[in-house]
Amino acid sequence: MATTGTRPLRADAQRNRDRLLDVAVRAFSDGGPDVTLDAIAKEAGVGIGTLYRHFPTREALVEAAYRNELARLCDAADELLDMQRPDAALRTWMDRFVDYMTTKRGMAEALRAVIASGGNPFAQSRDRLLAAITTLLAAGWDAGSVRSDVAPADVLASLSGVSLAAGEPEQRAQAGRLLDLIMDGLRYRPVA
Q1: Which of 20, 26, 59, 67 is the most buried (most CB within 10 A)?
Q2: What is the C-alpha to C-alpha distance for residues 70 and 161, in angstroms, rounded to an integer?
Q3: Per residue in 80-96, pLDDT tens?
């Protein structure tokens, strides 16, 4: 939940902020950095003043939208483990990772503008992603459904490779097959 100073946002203000972030992700992914803030505010059903109260600059909105997507992905690890077996949760999370990377690729130009203005939207990305993967792997290790000799950084590199090789929306079926191969490798038990 976002805060203003030290107190949480009112429920209606939080809903407005969340809608703005959701619309911004789609708008920057589809329309690139040239989409107007007025268009984002209008699609979110708020006035431009509300947008600027939450995000004083275009760069602040882009960075917050990206970080919100990262948080959704990383927070999903625990949520998925509450609903699925550890290996199934990991595989579902892998699909979400590819979706996240597709969104990130769509937002690339807008994110470059943030970096050019001195921001670093990726400052904590790797650490957060590794923490989520570690959570999922540890649950699999404890359940005996995932081999225990795999480093979280290796899983992240593998998932990033799938996203680079088959991260376009029309390649989703291929990405799924590649993710299945990674899962098969994570389940494989080396012979002692």
Answers
A1: 20
A2: 18
A3: 999 999 999 999 999 99
